[in-house]
Design a protein that fits this description.
- There is one protein chain.
- Strand 6 and strand 7 form a beta hairpin.
- The chain has one domain: FAS1 domain.
- Helix 1 packs across helix 2.
- It starts with a strand and ends with a helix.
- The longest helix has 25 residues.
- The chain is globular, with a radius of gyration of 22 Å.
- It is an alpha+beta fold.
- The chain has a seven-stranded mixed sheet.
């Protein structure tokens, strides 16, 4: 079976809003040590299936009261869709996100440009080099304190 993709792409303005609201998380996303987490986040935005889904297709699958689940490369994407004043919105994780530009056709699927990325606070884990350095520094201070205490005891 040939795969088709539906990709929810946060536009530049969405990332700017994210940067303002979560500056340290935004900065972490672009660090080399956080590449794994960045990949996981981006994979959440891609539905991989036997077909691509237009925003109308998605609205038929799940309306304002009935969510639906679609497969991504990461974990299942649970969405609801609504239309209001000729605009579409997808609900993800309790947030209604405006679909800035729906149904952009591409060779292997469809892109929906959205106004907010699918990112959770827990997606950005503090396991980068800075934390490794902090851990090493803490361990060093602990060892020196231990040795200093031993010297004073003798």
């Amino acid at each position: 079976m040939e795969h088709r993709y539906t990709y929810f792409v946060p536009r530049d303005h969405a990332w700017l809003k994210f940067q303002i609201r979560h500056p340290s998380a935004y900065k972490a996303l672009f660090k080399e040590d956080f590449g794994y987490f960045t990949k996981q986040i981006l994979e959440r935005h891609v539905i991989r299936a036997g077909r691509a889904y237009t925003v109308s297709d998605l609205k038929l699958l799940g309306n304002e009261t009935h969510p639906f689940v679609l497969p991504t490369s990461r974990d299942p994407l649970r969405l609801r869709v609504k239309e209001s004043d000729k605009n579409y919105y997808v609900e993800w994780n309790g947030h209604w996100i405006h679909v800035f530009r729906p149904d952009v056709e591409c060779i292997n699927g469809i892109i929906h440009v959205i106004d907010e990325p699918f990112v959770l606070e827990s997606d950005i884990r503090a396991t980068g080099a800075a934390d490794k350095l902090y851990f090493a520094h803490s361990l060093f201070v602990l060892l020196v304190s231990f040795l200093f205490t031993r010297i004073l005891e003798n």
